[in-house]
Amino acid sequence: MMGAHHAACGAAAWVAVASTAPYTLGWYPVSPLGVVAGALVCAGAALAPDADHHDATIANSLPPVSQWVCDAVGAVAGGHRNGTHSLLGVAVLTGVAWAAGHLTVDTEALGELALGAGVLSLLLVAFAAQALRLGGNRRLHAWALALALAGFVTVAAPTEWTWLPVAVGLGASVHVVGDLLTTGGVPLLWPWEPRPPRWWRRTPVLRDVWRSGGNVALPVLGSAGSWREWLMVVPVGLYATYGVTTAVAAGTLTSLGYDADAVLGRVVELAGAVVATAAVIGTAPLPG
Ligand SMILES: [Zn+2]
């Protein structure tokens, strides 16, 4: 999958899991700030497995340092679409986020600061902002946006970072699943990469699911960047935008003293009624 598509899927997954707005799952509810910041962190984490690739979004985020880092990751993980695209890779990334969350410093002026979480989030949000072009095409804008968000949460709401390993684990998983849906597949059980027997490699369909190199795939999206991938990503991107917008609205309403859940529920209900009415009108036969 393309970088921006991975990022959009990561943001949408966080919205589905962490928001409590209508049309979300609300399995891991967080504050409206947590929905917005987490969507960007999760989008960034959904790019992280491609840090094994010299030309990916991450490698181009802060050259030449980011390219050296990506070359090193690629060397350790056995090249592109290897270790970082496995269950072990997801576990390692989640562990790094968990460890980063425990790195705090006590300051006299600002109290306890979530330093590790702040730095990790700064990186992930900067990756997401660049992949999703949130700062236009300017690399500097993406870093400025990331710095503002990470700095704000680190200083103003350090306890907000408790969800960091969840967002990173979810984002990395979404990436691996995304690539699993393309023809190349992923080595889920890396470093164990069993190859299929010869008769399997000669059988249509079977050879696309367990590939000769050992990768597994459910190639419903076709090749990376295909029209099918685009078809899936447009509604996913709209859903992520919906989730972040409702979270911003909920945060604003709550700070103004309103019952945000009730107001938003009513707005979404009304919007649904308008869409249903428009659909009825649109499909009705013309008079005469
Ligand atoms: Zn990938």
From TrEMBL:
The keyword DNA-binding does not apply. Pfam families: YdjM (PF04307). Keywords: Hydrolase, Membrane, Transmembrane, Transmembrane helix. One of its GO terms (molecular function) is hydrolase activity. The chain crosses the membrane at residues 30-48, 86-103, 109-128, 140-157. The keyword Transmembrane applies. This is Metal-dependent hydrolase. The lineage of its organism: Bacteria, Bacillati, Actinomycetota, Actinomycetes, Micrococcales.
